[in-house]
Amino acid sequence: MKKIVLSTLLLSTLALTASAEVAKDQVKLKADIEAAKAEKSKAEASLKALQAQLPPNEQVMTTIRLGYISTTGNTETETFSLYADAKKAWNKHNVSLVLDGQYGSTDSTETVNKVFVEGNYGYSFIASLSMTAVAGYKNDKFSSYNYQSYAGPGLKWLTYKSTIQELSLEGSILYAKDDAKAANTGLEESYGAYRAKLLYSLNILDNLKFEQEASFKGSFDESDNYFIFSRSALSSKISDMFSAGVSYKVDYANLVLAGIKQQDNTLEAFLSIDY
C-alpha cells in the first residue's frame, strides 16, 4: 500500500513539475512572440522611412480612374467620368499630365460635357522647393465659356512629408484667356492671373487613403473674376494595382452668364488603376 501511495505522490510531483515547465515555456514563447512583433513593427517603420528618402521613381507612373453613376425611375440619368494622371521624374526634373473628363445625360438629353487638361513641369532647387511651369485648358459645354486656357511659371513648396501624409503648396503667375459664349458680357477675355493650389494626402490605414486638392485662380485686374476648384477623394486598395473609392468635386466660377449656375457639384464612385 505504501508503495502505491509513494508512486502516486511521485507521479503527481513529476506531473506538476512538467506542467510548471510547460507553463514557463509558454510564457517565454509568448514573450518571444511579442518581442518579434515589436521588432517587425520597428523594421517596417524603418523601411517606410528609408523608402520615403528615395529619389523620385524615374519610370512613368500612371493613374487612371473610371467613374459611373446611373439613376432610374421618374428621371433617368447617366454620368461617366475619366481621370488620368501620368508622371515622370529624373534627376531634378519632373513632368506630369492630367486629364479630367465628364459626360452625363438626363432622360437622353445631354447635361454634362466637360474636359480639363493640364501639364506641369518642375525643377527642384532643393528637396522641398521647386520651380514650376504650368499650362491648362478647359472646355465645359454648359459653362459661360467656349473654352478657358492659362499658362505661366510658379513655385511649389513641399511643406510637410512623412511616412503617412504629405502636404504641398503651389503658387503661379498666369496669363489667362477665357472665350465667353456671348459678346459684351463684361467677362474678361485675356488677363494676368494668379493661382494658389493645395495638395494633401493621408494614408489613414495601409489600404485606405484620403486625398484633397484645392485651388483658387483670380484676376489681378478684376477682383470679382475668380474660380475655385476642390476635389476630395477616399480610396481603398483592392490589390497592388486596383483601388476603389468615392470623390466629391466642387467647380465654382464667380462671374457667369445669365441662366448659368455658378457652381457644379459632382459626387462619384470610381475604380482606380495604378501602374
Task: Give the total of beta strands.
Answer: 12
Strand content: over 45%
Structure class: alpha+beta
Proportion of helical residues: 10-25%
Specify the CATH homologous superfamily of the largest domain.
monomeric porin ompg
In CATH, what is the class of the largest domain?
Answer: Mainly Beta
Mean pLDDT: 85
- CATH hierarchy: architecture of the largest domain: Beta Barrel
Low-confidence stretches: none
Q: Give the count of helical stretches.
A: 1
Q: Which word captures the global form?
A: globular
Query: What is the CA-CA span between the terminal residues?
Result: 81 Å
- The ordered H/E elements are HEEEEEEEEEEEE
Radius of gyration: 29 Å
Main beta sheet strand tally, sense and closure:
12 strands, antiparallel, barrel
Fold blueprint:
Layout (H helix, E strand, L loop, with lengths): L1 H51 L8 E11 L5 E14 L2 E14 L2 E18 L2 E12 L4 E17 L3 E16 L9 E16 L2 E12 L6 E12 L4 E12 L9 E12 L1
